[in-house]
Amino acid sequence: MGNLQNDLDALTMERQWVITQARKGKISEDDMDFQLSALSVQELGLKQRMNRQIEVNNLATLTYREDITREHLSDLATGLEWQNAAPQNDEERHQKYLLKR
Length: 101
What we know:
Elements: H1 2-23, H2 29-84, H3 90-100
């Protein structure tokens, strides 16, 4: 995504350069309008790509969090099953007693 931001920054600089050239009288107003329109189209494309990349990153983050949550809930379920099962020996009975306190 850093490259896309760099490209957007470069477009901003180019936009300023075009405006400066028009103010200095080196290019006509029509030429400036044409160049600025082309830059706007490029900018729109870059922003769309950046938004898609952000959506992909957000989806990956959500998927990761879902996996972690699922694993945590599975561990909790396993712990509850163990806690609720009848103890197999005195040591296990003592461990369950301590956990319930």
